[in-house]
Amino acid sequence: MAKHPVQLFVSRLSFYTTNEKLRALFLPFGELKETRLLIDPRTQRPKGYGFVTFESETDAHSALKALNGKIIDGRIIFVEAAKTTRPGEN
């Protein structure tokens, strides 16, 4: 069975959460392809949300179940499957 990367959307992150902290938070659940914290270009501060891409759907599901609703850096975070559309889909 081939592994397909699965992207999670993480919201309500603290403005003190860094990309490194985000990666460290999700790394125990499996092999990560990418972590991306969105940054406000004007203020250079995190926007409070980001994306985590796992190599495996099983690992992504485990992380989602374990971390959704947890308090991280003083905030309750939400983790859900990212809604992605492929080019040409509407």
From TrEMBL:
Record-linked Pfam families: RRM_1 (PF00076)
Domain RRM: 6-84
CDD domains named in the record: RRM_SF (cd00590)
Taxonomy, superkingdom: Eukaryota
Presence of keyword RNA-binding: yes
InterPro entries: Nucleotide-bd_a/b_plait_sf, RBD_domain_sf, RRM_dom, U1_U11-U12_snRNP_70-35kDa
An MF annotation (GO) of this entry: U1 snRNA binding
SMART domains assigned to the protein according to its UniProt record, in alphabetical order: RRM
Swiss-Prot/TrEMBL GO biological process terms: mRNA splicing, via spliceosome
Any one cellular-component term (Gene Ontology): U1 snRNP
Gene3D superfamilies named among the record's database cross-references: 3.30.70.330
Location in or out of the cell: Nucleus
Name listed for the protein in its UniProt record: RRM domain-containing protein
Keyword line: Nucleus, RNA-binding
Keyword check for Nucleus: yes
PROSITE patterns linked: RRM
Chief subcellular location: nucleus
